[in-house]
Amino acid sequence: MTLASSASSEHGALPHPGPEHPLSMPAFVDHARLVVRDLPLVSSWYQAVMGLSVIERRPSGETLGVGGRPLLTLTTSNHAALAPRNAPGLFHTAFLVPDRPALARWLVHAARQQVALDGASDHLVSEAIYLADPEGNGIEIYRDRPRADWTTLPDGMVKMATRPLDLQSLYAEGLALGPGPASGGGAGWAGMEPGTALGHLHLQVSDLPAANGFFRDVLGLDIISTYPGASFFSTGRYHHHLAANVWNTRDAPRRSADMTGLGTYTLRFTDGTALQTALAALDRLEIPTTRHGDSVSLTDPFGIGLTLST
Ligand SMILES: [Fe+2]
Q1: Residue 82: inside a domain
Q2: Which end of the chain is more exposed for a tag (fewer CB within 10 A), N or C?
Q3: pLDDT tens-digit readout, 141-179
Q4: Which residues surround ligand 1, an ion (CB under 5 A)?
Q5: Residues with Cβ < 8 Å from 223, sequence gap 6 or more?
Q6: Structural domain boundaries, residue 123
Q7: Ligand 1 centre distance from Cα of residue 45 (Å)
Q8: pLDDT tens by residue, 240-249
Q9: What is the rounded CA–CA span in Å between residue 29 and residue 199?
Q10: Global pTM?
Q11: Which CATH number belongs to the domain containing residue 154 in this structure?
Q12: How far is CA 106 from each of CA 171, 190, 196, 264, rounded to the nearest angstrom?
């Protein structure tokens, strides 16, 4: 199978992120699609709480994003079965804001909206806040520390940990900063900061060695860190573009096609050779794929859909 290595015209007009940004790496996640039961409720929640804007409305669903960049598509289906907690699929989508002030401003907004948070962690490479949408889809909002502050371990892995994040000091910082550039000069928070991206996607899977085999050996991503029951994958030594854990889903059956939660996501390759290598591995292993123009769709070993794209 071959695939034309054309530049993305869809995102061509957008400002290029900095050299350390996950979207500057040879492959990255740039979009996810969730299947939801109550589209108006969930869409309005992502707009009001996460500050996303509607970019496209179709009968089947809505695409939301920041500054014209599509990040999340919500589709709905009358037939979708409610995914059980132990179904493979989404652990969280992770929205990467440009800097710590943007995270602090969002926290002030969330507090004013009385949004329930699930947690907040300092991961050494990043600072992250966790919550869930009205249908239980996990969400992380985070900012990265500069790579100069990251530690590489003797085995070449990037050092990460889960330590408490001081939300009070972050909130105080946000209060002192005011509403920020997305407010258009108004007094209130008016949306997610320009430049916000889908920095990573964290999946729950049924088998960690199988996940390592698929994401590393088939798709060609590097294992950049490990936790008990979780692997972190990336390109360009980012701390992770994809993570997979078995914490809720060890030995669970495959995800079914028509289930609420993560429908599919896009892994975009700027390195055409890396994409061709991944496609050749899929062919060699006789993993079924479907081609749509410049992209190839498939289902991973856990039943989670993904699209490989240039
Ligand atoms: Fe995450």
Answers
A1: yes
A2: N
A3: 999 999 999 999 999 999 999 999 999 999 999 999 877
A4: 94, 140, 202
A5: 157, 212, 216, 231, 232, 233
A6: 25-309
A7: 20
A8: 999 999 999 9
A9: 7
A10: 0.93
A11: 3.10.180.10
A12: 9, 10, 12, 27
